[in-house]
Amino acid sequence: ESLRIRRSNNDSLDSIDVAATLVNMGQVFNQMEDYEEALEYYRDFLRVAKTHFGEYHRDVCIVTTYAGQTLHHLKYYGQSLKVYHHALRIAQVVLGPIHSEIAIIFNKIGNLYCDTQDYDSALQAYHQGLEVELQVLDQGNGNIIVTYSNIAEIHKERAEFDLALHFYQMMLNRQRAIPYKTDNCAMEVATTLSNVAYMHYQKGDYERALEVNQECLRIRREQKGDDAEEVASSLLQTALVLLKLDRSHMALETMLESYRIRKKLHQENRELACAMYNVALIYHQQGALDCALGYYLETANIEQKILGSSHRDLSITFFNMAQIYHQRGELELALQKFRLALTIERQSLGALHPTCARTWNEI
Question: Which of these, 257, 255, 332, lies nearest to 286 by C-alpha position?
Answer without folding.
Answer: 255
